Amino acid sequence: MATTEGVLVASTSRGCKAINAGGGAITVLTGDGMTRGPCVGFETLTRAGAAKVWLDSEEGQRTMKNAFNSTSRFARLQTMKTAIAGTYVYIRFKTTTGDAMGMNMISKGVEHALHVMSTEAGFDDMAIISVSGNYCTDKKPAAINWIDGRGKSVVAEAIIPKDVVQSVLKSNVDALVELNTSKNLIGSAMAGSIGGFNAHAANIVTAIFLATGQDPAQNVESCNCITVMKNLHGNLQISVSMPSIEVGTIGGGTLLEPQSAMLDLLGVKGAHPTNPGDNARQLARIVAAAVLAGELSLCSALAAGHLVKAHMSHNRSAVPTRSSTPAPGAGGPGGCRRR
Amino acid sequence: MATTEGVLVASTSRGCKAINAGGGAITVLTGDGMTRGPCVGFETLTRAGAAKVWLDSEEGQRTMKNAFNSTSRFARLQTMKTAIAGTYVYIRFKTTTGDAMGMNMISKGVEHALHVMSTEAGFDDMAIISVSGNYCTDKKPAAINWIDGRGKSVVAEAIIPKDVVQSVLKSNVDALVELNTSKNLIGSAMAGSIGGFNAHAANIVTAIFLATGQDPAQNVESCNCITVMKNLHGNLQISVSMPSIEVGTIGGGTLLEPQSAMLDLLGVKGAHPTNPGDNARQLARIVAAAVLAGELSLCSALAAGHLVKAHMSHNRSAVPTRSSTPAPGAGGPGGCRRR
Amino acid sequence: MATTEGVLVASTSRGCKAINAGGGAITVLTGDGMTRGPCVGFETLTRAGAAKVWLDSEEGQRTMKNAFNSTSRFARLQTMKTAIAGTYVYIRFKTTTGDAMGMNMISKGVEHALHVMSTEAGFDDMAIISVSGNYCTDKKPAAINWIDGRGKSVVAEAIIPKDVVQSVLKSNVDALVELNTSKNLIGSAMAGSIGGFNAHAANIVTAIFLATGQDPAQNVESCNCITVMKNLHGNLQISVSMPSIEVGTIGGGTLLEPQSAMLDLLGVKGAHPTNPGDNARQLARIVAAAVLAGELSLCSALAAGHLVKAHMSHNRSAVPTRSSTPAPGAGGPGGCRRR
Amino acid sequence: MATTEGVLVASTSRGCKAINAGGGAITVLTGDGMTRGPCVGFETLTRAGAAKVWLDSEEGQRTMKNAFNSTSRFARLQTMKTAIAGTYVYIRFKTTTGDAMGMNMISKGVEHALHVMSTEAGFDDMAIISVSGNYCTDKKPAAINWIDGRGKSVVAEAIIPKDVVQSVLKSNVDALVELNTSKNLIGSAMAGSIGGFNAHAANIVTAIFLATGQDPAQNVESCNCITVMKNLHGNLQISVSMPSIEVGTIGGGTLLEPQSAMLDLLGVKGAHPTNPGDNARQLARIVAAAVLAGELSLCSALAAGHLVKAHMSHNRSAVPTRSSTPAPGAGGPGGCRRR
């Protein structure tokens, strides 16, 4: 984790300790696909409608898939979601991208597929208004990412025995459940949030993104998260659902030396040798597990009322330092054992 | 700007060039106040209602302001916004914070004010559920930040003569206006966005946040932005409205050496000597002006259809480098002249 | 209640029975003000910024209040909220409107105030783009109504003893709390809702609106509602927060005979004789209390798994009938005793 | 149209006149499927994940389709969309429903499919928390309806010659385009709207719903609409996109005598004799075309600044009357010719 907030590392580490004491975290990958949503235009609705009908048809799907897939060894078009406003058609391409985060790969595929649509499928009156029509949606808050996912979709869960909640987290199960309901569910609802039903997922996501060479501007949607807590037979059951974690283990900032070393440490450096995409998916699971630890720890701190004090003591002890390698023993995201 | 996306620096620089050719950018500061939204609980609605009535009353306002303001030389409570769900009361404190981003300052003030409310104003049955009830809202997407602002609220504008649009931006006024309408307004509306009506504000915000020692996890809301373009007598009028830029020039990451040097270069290092807060406000104006340049340049590139090509050539020329000081001549955000 | 869904009346009636058995409902009025949000335009941001600064200033507030208030005996301007996008300024006027719902009243006041601003305050370069700039927001989903309120803001609560939950509602406290959390809080969050954290507030709101001569198109925002349930010492504590109930007891459809009779039955017909607005506010409290009953009953039915069966038996017994007067003994909204 | 707002009928009628002068309206149906989103629960994420994997698999899809389709002659399961939060799985069933609006039909199918899943597919540890988990989403604002559609999805367009804009609508093309951008796009964006990018779709939808026996509480999502205007070779091109119009021509309120007569007048009464669903789809197209007329007329009135005056003169001439049959010559929604 790369951060200047000293308390973050200590906090996540404490969360990991509690999770490990409870048997580790479970992660489930529920989706994997990067998206790009160009905007194309026609002169009339009749033509825009014809384009949408064709794109939604079997022939359209096949033609576009062939065109798209021809541009890369890794990108495989999964779905196209289309919508019309005025005479504009918005097309959300969703594709696997191997171990790359995939934005460049998908942009290239989209451009070629649109070219084929224009020249070979009878839509030469189509204007490509923008290869990104904000229907992607990249680096901006948007319900479409929350609802349909973008990048990797992961759910992580841990069950923390009640005595660990008390000894490690200095809280109790019912207080945590009430805090989660009143703050993360109701509080965010009152604030008009779409996808922000958590305590501080963005802190953990950003720190890992910086440490592992991800695009830190993509934390805007990557930090989408709903945290759920429940009293399960007296113990604490906690989970985070994160539908749009955008990560890769090749290309971009992952090539820089410290970031590359961190990926290596986590066991997900570069392209996966046998199953392309496994490294990137594993990294997304690590992100979710680390967020789980962060939520657990911060919520416990809030429930115990010592947030401000923690910030003061951790930051004042010294000038904050940016560490792009994890402090020994601190654990970092990889410190969370996953079952 | 600190980024591994090489094209970002070149792009923003091109935007600055166009803006400067048109007479520079105007910025208007329309708000300044950090927020914290605790959740307090009562046993019944009757008591929660009594608390809300008191907080909204003149006596409540005065008592809370006195309590809050006593905790800092800089924090001055501006408003409290209250809401009830169930038996929970959510209170959004909004305060000036001098040249600090202000989260620690405001948390301290909130804790003290709630303590006074509990012990001196007859609400000793109040439970402080969480000093942050997500009604702030910190590091999460939320309409409340978009609508009521958080940190600094800034609008920036530039008018680009039509010949500059052609010569520097390789586009034309009407194409840009249509692109902005179809992508940034309609496209984001179709994607269900709250506050994400722009092309890539997050890229610029994140790069400046890293370069100047801001909290990069706060880009989630700091990148809220609506970009508007208009044909004004044949020229391009472009503006960005950014209601929730969260920045400071003292404390946290601003103390690190390279970040401190960057703030110095921008003329906003540390506390403003005579008017506390002026440095932080100036930094927010710089952020907005840089976003203006970034929007201008990327939208021009999209309108001209050369986004993918630009990414390829800039990134392939060499391994991308992270520069925390601006490349000579590249301009960086400070390179945009503001009128 | 006017409805063709036979089950609705029976259901709300059952909810009322449970509420009355528990001591009745409490309602708290937390806000009262109709809004109108015109859009005005300028040629440059500089001028738009000057307008915003003036509107936010003491002089601007005083001038606009005087102008606005001069147009009606009842409308009293409370606040103006302003925002800039591009060269447009959006101004959300909020005003009391006596016992009228108030849209015509406020539109008249807004037009005059803008006229004064244009002719007497130095803004003769201002174009009134639209007396409604959708910043109101009338009859459309919008976070601003959820967060800032529109019309009447009411919270209603009831505490249902556990034995009543079992005997009348055929459910149990913990099942209801879990249903509310998983459906009304988490389910709506997953669906990307702003303000729709309830089971079926719209059913009750619409039925009462039709029965009492309200504008049924305003149920779009009037049905904004978050339902909260809690186990309080073994009993069920339930509440609804409804920030934007738009009702009146004079003008419009309230003049029609059956609707007028219904208002009379509820004791809120016409203008309140001594305290203008009290009748409309009372009607809003009745709406919230009826929604409380509806939430209680439907959630109990869902928890017991007999929703579909209930619909079938109630609707099949006969051709559904539209009754604009309440069935004798059915209770209707007025049948809920409020403490 | 059933309304007490006298101006509404006159206004929509004027819009129809302009549309007809321009050659009529085009409508495109882009989707058709009612939804129900139950919430089911498991003890652990592992089990919830297994359920999601099975539901998303070919076997799961086939099993659920067979079970669902066996419950009705008309309901045909199109898709299931699944999401996990905590240990809850939300499943959005989408289905054709013939000429019925379809909520009862789909609820029945969902219950049976979940029963089969529980008893025959190895998920007997599944708890059916609620047959509606708000993931539908019925009668509440929610991005999922805006993005994925619910009921019928329709886009309608008309091109109004510039002289008709002047003679009939008393406005001009550029003024209308600016009004639409500043009010319906930017204004709604500033207000934090999801799906409310129009002037007053709810007025038209509600009036037609009441006149034709639809469920008026479903106008909450049925009025979702984005209005787009463009200068096309000097003429006005206007369209409305409405993704979630929930209507039927059999069952419920359509059986009432006046409503049935209105459906007859529109040529869409009862079940379509040869192609089930065609009547309901046709009604949805009529709704969209009427909204198009309403948008055109109100926006023209706003652009010309005579909204308040129009309300005054139309309502004051007489006590408003509720007409459930259209005034002769007024046109009503059916008065708009569609190409």
From TrEMBL, chains A, B, C, D:
UniProt keywords, alphabetically: Oxidoreductase
What is the native source organism of this protein?
Coniosporium tulheliwenetii
Protein name stated in the entry: 3-hydroxy-3-methylglutaryl-coenzyme A (HMG-CoA) reductase isozyme
Q: Which gene encodes it?
A: HMG1_1
Tell me the enzyme class: oxidoreductase
**E.C. designation(s):** 1.1.1.34
